[in-house]
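Protein modeling request. Please complete all fields; requests missing the sequence field cannot be processed.
Requester role: graduate student
Desired output: 3D structure, token encoding
Chains: 1
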Amino acid sequence: MARLTAGGVAFDVDAVAFDKDGTLIDLDAAWGPAARAWVETAAAGDARLLAELAARMGLDLDHDHLVAGGLFAVGTVGQLYEATLEVLGEHGSADGEAVADAARHTSALAGEKGNLVPLGEVAMALEALRGEGIRLAIVSSDDRSAIDAAIIALGIGHLVEAVVAGDQGLDPKPAPDALIEAARMMGIAPSRMLYVGDSWVDAEAGRAAGVAGTVLVGDVDPEVGELARVVVPAVDHLTPLRGGSAQRDQDDAESGGGNGPDLRSAHVLAQEQTGGDDGDQHRGLPDP
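Delivered output (288 residues):
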């Protein structure tokens, strides 16, 4: 059984499922431009409507910043569409569906390569996990096309075994359906899988699905952090234990053989290889 540590806590799991936005890639970089384009398209020059859409959907217009836990940050594109229709209806829009459709098309901006900024050494972290036999999945509220674009930009397509997207017709997070589907696709029980996300919906979905634990990454609100087992700065702070099994670690300890598990994270290994500054955790995308 593959094992890893996160924040000093050991997990005996067979797989890790990752959220995408705010976990693997920078949420504001990806969705900030798309969110602004969405509400501006829907508002069509009406300043009052623009402010209402932004407030209802979780966008700070002054800084193009997504509000933590807001609909733009955690919702599906379908939920954003429905919320837009609702606000337009409240404002008496006669062609709400057409306007909402136009706004929905702006979500494609979130999948443009220039907006996909990895959070830490994502590819190296996932390579390290997969190298120790830990299976990998992505479970995101975003549409499949945006997830595929991120997978390509990050260079992790050969590592990811299962993808569950927000447009597959499953109940969205915090419902457990998407995580249960990811486990089913890999042929394992949810209890053999760790989930890594960045928001309260991730923590609640993990709990409801019965996963082995939920790890949250980034600058998480303390109240949200309490919902998770562990909070770490980024996914490159997940560390696979060399050898891939608790039994091997025990055998090495009993025999005195081996050098013990390599507990350095992908983040530390990257610093050793590049000589980079420890505070520089936001890297550019790999060349296509």
